[in-house]
Each structure stands twice: as structure tokens, then as C-alpha cells.
Amino acid sequence: MKKLSRVQDSRLYPEEMDQLLENHEMFETIREFFRQNESVKKTSQALITHPNTVRYRLEMIYKRTGLDYRLTNDKFLIYIAFIKKLLAKVNNE
Question: Percentage of the chain surpassing pLDDT 90?
Fold first, then answer.
């Protein structure tokens, strides 16, 4: 069963997304980005960082995966990857 779900996952979003989410800062940036209704400004305020830092991290997703945080379909795939990682963290605790 695990093998089947892994095949399905790889079709939803690029594997590189899983690697990016291993980075704590990237994980927290994405978490806050969705908490703040996809607002870079509010995300930067919540993380106490510069908006360009948030943009840089989100651009890293595009450079590594081709997923653009400004496009609805791509945001959805980023969110799926994030939720999958979040659930894995919860299950491991």
C-alpha cells in the first residue's frame, strides 16, 4: 500500500518539494504563507523577516520544482506537499 501512495504522490508534485520541506525555515515560511492567506507582507511580519526574504524562499520553490507560488494550481500542489509533511510530523510525534 505504501508503494502505491508514493507513486500517487510523485504525480501530484515534484519530489524536490519534499526535500525543500525538510528545511525548517522553508517549512515555517510555507506554513505562515498559507496562514496569512498567501500574503507575502503579512508572512514577513509574522516571521519577523523582510518581505524579500519570504519572496526569496518562495522563489526557491520555483527554481527547484517549477511550482510558482503566484499561480493557483501550483499553490494547491505546494499546499498538498506541505500538508503531507505536516501530517508526517504529527504521526511521528
Answer: 77
